[in-house]
Write a structure and sequence with these properties.
Shape: elongated
Helix content: over 70%
Number of helices: 5
Order of helices and strands: HHHHH
Strand content: under 5%
Largest sheet: none
Length: 118
């Protein structure tokens, strides 16, 4: 179970690095606009906010990677950052798009369950 939990944590960390790239660097580009269903005008107007959001996603990824790098001693670090991911996913799912519940919150729940079962 420990390996499975850590594998899901790695996937979540990589997802958040991907979110960082989309929000900080690709927001106004076709790939970023397509990913979030944005018009060119709205993307341009909101690019500073998106970059800020991307930075937060980077912090979540960094925290999960930090927890992984600590081995067994990183359990509490991983749990803390997974709970942060979960809360952000629930908030985003309720306020922005239901899709966020499946993309962000559900993987965090799965990782938490696997970590606690290990």
């Amino acid at each position: 179970m420990s390996i499975a939990g850590n594998l899901v944590v790695v996937i979540i960390a990589l997802l958040h690095v991907y979110f960082l790239v989309l929000e900080m660097f690709l927001w106004t580009k076709p790939a970023g606009r397509r990913a979030f269903g944005l018009t060119a005008e709205f993307a341009e107007q909101s690019k500073t906010l998106a970059a800020n959001q991307g930075l937060y996603n980077g912090f979540l990824a960094a925290g999960l990677i930090w927890g992984l790098s600590l081995g067994i001693a990183g359990f509490n670090v991983k749990v803390f950052f997974l709970v942060c991911v979960l809360v952000a996913g629930i908030f985003g799912g309720l306020t922005a798009s239901r899709k966020i519940l499946w993309i962000q919150a559900l993987p965090a729940v799965i990782a938490l369950l696997l970590l606690f079962l290990a």
